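Deliverable D4.2, example record:
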Amino acid sequence: MPSIAPTLDAPRVPTPPDHSRRRARVTTAVVLLAPLVVLAVAAWSYRWMSDDGFINLRIVDQLTSGHGPVFNQGERVEAATSPLWIYVLTAADLVVPLRLEWIAVLVGITLTVAGTALAMLGAGRLIERDDRTVLVPAGALVLVVLPPMWKFASSGLENGLTFAWLGATCALLAAWARSGRPF
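Output generated by the structure prediction step:
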């Protein structure tokens, strides 16, 4: 028969929270966001549009006017070097109430920053770490201090789309590698 007598265990004393884990998480978040903020600010301050970017904008105008992906109406000559970028800009032009030039700049910068973030996420997934480890994105730091990265993020070309594709591929491959599943 079980005893109803009180137990003589010592009272539970609440343990203080582990500040080192919280500090490591906050530090990691700040360190990981810093290159992305630097990239976004630098890309915005160096925003511009290349000549070929304006070619893309003209093709988008022709496409949204119903003439197809051509440079001049009635001339069946393809002038686009990146059809996917043309269609991304076309979709954004139909949805976003801004001038097409600004859409190209904003989408380019956004995709460049997103691609860099996804690449950092993928690299971070491949590292064995505990709760107290602070990640330092050395590769991203090297990338975001390069002036061509800032300047071509908003050039009207497909650079941002390319970086988003590479970053997404890196993140997906890292997730697959960590899952332990074969193809």
